[in-house]
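Many introductory courses stop at the sequence. We go one step further.
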Amino acid sequence: MDLSDAYVTYTNDYIESVWWMLRQLWDRGLLYQGFKVVPYCPRCGTPLSDHEVSQGYKENTPDPSIFVRFPLRDDPQTSFLVWTTTPWTLPANVALAVHPKMMYARVERATADGQREYLILAKDLVEKVLQGAEFKLVGDYLGEELRGKGYQPLFTFMPLEKPAHRVILGDFVTTAEGTGIVHVAPAFGADDMQAALENDLPIPMTVDPRGNFVPEVTPWQGLFVKEADPLIEKDLASRGLLLRRDVIHHTYPFCWRCNTPLLYYARSTWYIRTTQLKDRLVALNDTINWYPDHIKRGRFGNWLANNIDWALGRERYWGTPLPVWECPGCHHQMCIGSVAELEQLSGRSLHDLDLHRPHVDHVEWTCTTCGQAEMKRVPELIDGWFDSGSMPVAQWHYPFENEKLFGEQFPADYICEAVDQTRGWFYSLHAIATLVFDSVAFRNVICLGLILDGEGQKMSKSRGNVVDPWDVLNVHGADAFRWYLYTASPPGQERRYSTDLVGEVIRNFTLTLWNTYSFFVTYATLDGWQPDEALQRMASLGHPAGGRAGRSYTDLDRWILSELHVLTRQVSEAMETYDVLGATRPIETFVDRLSNWYLRRSRRRYWRAGESGDKGAAYATLYECLVTLARLIAPAMPFLADALYRNLVVSQNKEAQESVHLADWPEYDRTMIDEGLNEEMRQVLRWASLGHAARNKANRKVRQPLAEIAFSVTSPQQAVLLARYADLLGDELNVKKVHPLDAAGEVVSYTLNPLPKSLGPKYGARFPKLRGALLALEAEAAAHVLLAGSPLQVKVDGEELQVLPEEVEVRLSAREGFAVAEEGGLLAALRTDVTPSLLREGMAREFVRRVQDLRKSSGLAISDRILVFYTASATLGQAIEQFRDYVMGETLAIELTAGAAPEGAPSASDEFDGEHVTVGVLKSR
């Protein structure tokens, strides 16, 4: 943010640029004064633009729902039946509208007092409106036949200067709700006003600008219209004109500033003729990259396609004055586009004039048309959203200065705001740029969903569920906060937000990355490893630069580096297209694989004593991954990224940029990407996942060695792959042997369970036979088809039916001595029996864990050599002695002594698997 040169929308420079833009619209005939029905706030005393109205809608708003009789003038026993949710508009009624091509019915029914009455309403709505009451159809009419039919007015408070109270025709009439007959009050509805103009109807104004009835409406004079609704209903009921009253809950607009219900109200105000350029607004929007894409032609595109003229005028005291002066005598109008023009017309210097009211209103000059009166500024201000949308221009005081700078900055490459701005800032920017410059205002836009509380509710002060961002920042920091917002959900969707949800970022991602970095720094420092010149150059420049030559890379190294360069390509492409999830979530996946697969399977390489090509390759690989990750996360996690970069790169190369945010973006190396190797390792990871699932089913801890695990293979190539990575999988799963599964039937049995809820509705009466046919199939063969995700063909009465995988439950039962896991047609069978030798080896591993925990809690360095003392139950003692070399190697012990530790030595006792042990450690001198 450029706070040293910030723009403020109320400065003279800003206002002058806004005036210049309005002058461009005036000169092209796009700025005009009109008398229209507009959304109006009676409290604020001003009309609202359509995009302001869109910000204040409230769902489930209660309003009256009444059905009113309008007796015919020449037949009082017959009434037009009309529905309305605004009883307050009835005193201003001047006509009833029917659709010319709609069929209307005249029905006879009994009233509550036993009399007969006749009602006219849309034929298709009779049963719905009368709600089961008995009636008799006694006639029907085409809508156009009712034209001109007179009726008795409900109220006669206002004198009318033109004939009224007759039926007119209107295409806006529908049968979606109501009775198919619309009551027309021209001052309070856009369709009503248009109909009044087309049919030469009077326009009585029964409501004042504060939303109160005028004195002529004597029973309710001075009363706010919404408060008068029940009184009007009561009056109609007392005169037998109210057929039925209900309450409707619907979506209704409220003022987004003061929360007052809006009225649709006839006002004289100023408009921008945006409808004249509707096609251009749509065409330019098609060139913008929206993320998410559906907003372009959905929420925003539909708004443009249904565009109406922008209600620009506002009747307030403070804001940008509308720069139009008018002669009170001849009504000549001028739009002023600059202070210089105003100085020329007024004949005086205005360099120190505040362009706001009341100062600017004192600037006058003699009308150049009639020469009789002084030109005065019209009283209106402009919509604040026009100020907002003028920002790309007015912040530079264009065109009065900064022309080159404006040309460099406009249109913007990228903007970002919440989804509710599609009809606010996004629209005002786009409309103004189109109208004034025939250009887009922005090339790319990320449209964000709203942030909800942790329970998925919209935050509200009244509900008390507003989360203070500082509470989260103080607990988890800005990086975790930012990363959560980038990864929680697609930008256009709402997302939940709470301290706990942000905390999951720390637990699931940040700590994983930091622990990987910490592991590298710890062991690299112990070994005195430093990146060579080529690696330093690669880290500083962000591209390969030949930094891998001469190293003995393993398949695991080549795989993680291949995935690293795939990641760099993927994140770079996502950044270019403003794909927020594509630029963040893949990093989480990579960090998980780096930590929980690559590093875990490579850990012993860093522990080996001495220098070796293999250890050097392991350090170089992990270094390249961490440095590249620091660059990739920099836009989203700036503080963590800089800490990693400065320690890994700047500390090693004084010529490197001092911050990751000054460094180049990383480049990917196509030659390092091995898609075949990546796919192979994905298969190995699937096998590993299945193996762990089988262990979990058998309730066997990973530290307990087991004899063997077998995996199903679908091709000779998979069998070769399994053999190649058998040692890796064996080490990961802690099993002695890994091999292909010869026949699934040896370790598992299959049964099919046809699901009635899925197959019953689909096949109806044929389901019992279909079920029998399924159960008669060879279960194993059918199971393999379904588990592979393919449909199963089954014959029933000679007809071949297709059964989908989700319509049949495949049940697997492991044979004795095995635990089985299955996913997507792959099968893992783990032998679960534990021999005495395997049991003792598992005990030795558990003992190692207790020693390592004691080392850590005693504050020993990971490189410290130690003396280990222990007392243990008999079986555990045998296990420790049997695996003495393993225990000493894992714990860096130079002595392993059966017996109590010397007095004062750190010690701990524990029990596991029915065994007891006390262990003590001393640092070797």
